[in-house]
Amino acid sequence: MNIPFILEKAVSLYAQKEAIVSGGKRFTYGEFAERVYKLSNFLLSIGLKKGDCVAILHENSHQFLEAYFSTAQVGAILNPLNFRLSPKELAFILKDSGAVALIASRHFASSVNSLGNFQIKIKTVIWTGQGDETTPFRGIDYEEAIKEQHSEPPSISEISDSGIAHLYYTSGTTGEPKGVILTHKNVCTHALATIAELRLNDTDKWIHVAPLFHLADAWATFAITWVGARHITVPDFDPQSVLETIQNERITLTNMIPTMLNMLVNTPRANSYDFSSLRVILSGGASIAPDLVRKIMKTFKCDYIQTYGMTETCPYLTLSILKENLTHLAPEEQFIYKAKTGRPIIGVLLKVVRDNGEEVDHNDKEVGEIIVKGDIVTQGYWNRPKETVAAIKDGWLYTGDLALVDIEGYVNIVDRKKDMIVTGGENVYSTEVENVLYSHPAILEAAVIGVPDPKWGEAIKAVVVLKEEKEATKEEIIAYCKDHIAHYKAPKTVDFMSELPKTGSGKIYKKGLKEKYALGSQKMG
User: Fold this and answer.
1) Strand residue runs (E) in 359-454
2) SS3 letters for 460-473?
3) Maximum distance among all alpha carbons in the chain?
4) Spatial distance between the Cα atoms of 337 and 411, rounded to a whole number of angstroms
5) Measured between alpha carbons, how far is residue 338 from residues 186, 282, 308, 314, 327 in Å?
6) Interatomic CA distance for residues 483 and 478, integer angstroms
7) How far is CA 169 from the centre of its chain?
8) φ, ψ of residue 137 in degrees (nearest 5)
9) Distance CA 181, CA 446 (A)
10) What is the DSSP annotation of 91-136?
11) What is the set of domains in the chain, with CATH numbers?
């Protein structure tokens, strides 16, 4: 099974049904498919071959959705680019992927034009939006490119389910970005699993808020299309605009990064919007504090599901959906499970193991590393055989995430291996401390890191952002933590910032914070 099958299935049942709402435009599935086929035929007309790579630098839009399907239609590989990267970082990825064409929004013309300073293989830039940009590469307007093309699917040889569909580059938190290979089989298997787990159907309306270059949202491109549901895109994250769109377009579900949800529930007058259409809100892409989960459920007045996954797994590995025997628990007991990382989704085998490979006890106390296997797991990293062998052993992907597992099989992540803090010989998991900080009434955002310390090896530092018109001192925050967790886990220092650094997907960028404070320590030493 391959990605073109998904669109073909949707068109066969829902050709006249509204499929896309984007930038003031509305397309039925029939109209959307015609645009996809026209773009596919244009890509073939410029000499694109099966296995070639096409990059896209774009905000959320119908063009992004079209690119996901059209590249798959011709057997090409789509490489979604993080538009917050510098030209140098973009050039590294484009060189590594070998991309020969680029679909780009004119909003990012400056970055694209700067790529002329680097030796990359891009032959054609397909521009969207208004403007007449000059570029060191051959350029053509997106609408002009597809206008005269045939609106029938191109006739090409069969697309194998083992063929590469996407290259997503990791954020590079542990070194140079690596291209994660996802096949048609990976993508289609994941889509079917989410359809079953989330009970997606043709009445659903999904808002694409998290960036489509990131799998926190991109997976929905395929699952939502498969069931004939509706896509609604917003170009960037503006809290008020998102809330209005949820209300006006009668959104039924979506997935967002915790930092986005945190901003939404803290938006003035958030409770004044009509969210009665929502049936569930999902969070994913980073850990989330239980206190924030409560605020999400209270604000949106709908069900909540926590998700966990990786780029390497399309992404979902677990969902905090209750098993049938847990639905009989009292609401507060149910909430304990809803706020956990979750249980494995359909098609995934998951273990939490000790360093020697043995499974930890399912007692919700012993910490181990999550390892997984299944048809949604990547076959490896693009041109990185050593990294592939290091990550995948005997068919199991080692995630680098540390977690507990309970008797019901629900896992709860406590930290990334690289983020665990060792202070005075004790292991401290940053997530546990952050959860306490998020329960403080004055704190909007928080990150906990280990910083070099001559006495303790590492000392625990909290970096926080306060809510508007709220106040708190360092001493008060430290005392608050000591009231809620063991004293050795409480931060020894607290720094205040107006905003925490974020990755391109909106997650808090801990690596940047660590580097900042490590550098400061070296200068002082």
Assistant:
1) 368-373, 392-393, 396-405, 411-416, 421-423, 426-428, 443-453
2) EEEEEEECCCCCCC
3) 71
4) 9
5) 27, 11, 12, 22, 11
6) 9
7) 12
8) -110, 160
9) 33
10) HHHHHHHT--EEEEEGGGHHHHHHGGGS-----EEEEESS-----S
11) 3-185 (3.40.50.980), 237-416 (3.40.50.12780), 420-524 (3.30.300.30)
What per-residue confidence (pLDDT) applies to 286? 81
CA distances from 309 to 186, 344, 510 (A): 14, 10, 18
Helix axes 290-300, 331-338, angle to 10 degrees: 120
Contact 109, 85 (CB under 8 A): no
Q: Which residue has the tokens 């039924």?
A: 252
Region label for 88, one of left (φ > 0), alpha (ψ between -120 and 50) or beta (otherwise): alpha
The conformation of residue 326, written as its DSSP 8-state character, comes to G
Per DSSP, what are the bridge partners of residue 126? 103, 140
Say if residues 432 and 423 touch (Cβ distance below 8 Å).
no
Token pair for 366? 């012993």
Q: Are 159 and 1 in contact (CB under 8 A)?
A: no
The number of beta carbons lying within 10 Å of the beta carbon of residue 506 is 22
Q: Against a cut of 0.90, is the pTM above it?
A: no
Going from the first residue of the chain to its last (525 residues), give the mean pLDDT of each consecutive group of 10, the final group possibly shorter.
96 98 97 98 96 97 98 97 92 96 95 90 92 78 95 86 96 73 98 98 98 95 98 96 98 95 94 97 89 95 96 97 97 95 97 96 96 97 95 95 96 88 86 93 94 85 94 96 92 94 82 78 44
